[in-house]
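Hello Y.,

Per our agreement to keep a running log of every chain we model this quarter, I'm adding this entry. I've kept the format consistent with earlier entries: sequence first, then predicted structure.
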Amino acid sequence: MVRQWQEFFYNRRYVATPLLSPDFVKARRGARLLGLRVTPARRSRARDARAQAAGNGGDRFRVEQEDSVYPMVPATRTCAR
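Predicted structure for the entry above:
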């Protein structure tokens, strides 16, 4: 969400938000857990991958750096409780 704010409100001046992570698919497979990857080019497979993951005890997702998360709470508002 912070990266998204930097993209939309600060002209893509990214500070401390690069998504440099280990290969989580390989890590999960190394631990003998299900590891799936859905690339932007094959996004149509996302529903199938999520259903498969849910059938294997849960799901974990990593999104591409430029993917956006909605709904987005503007900086001038607070979340209602």
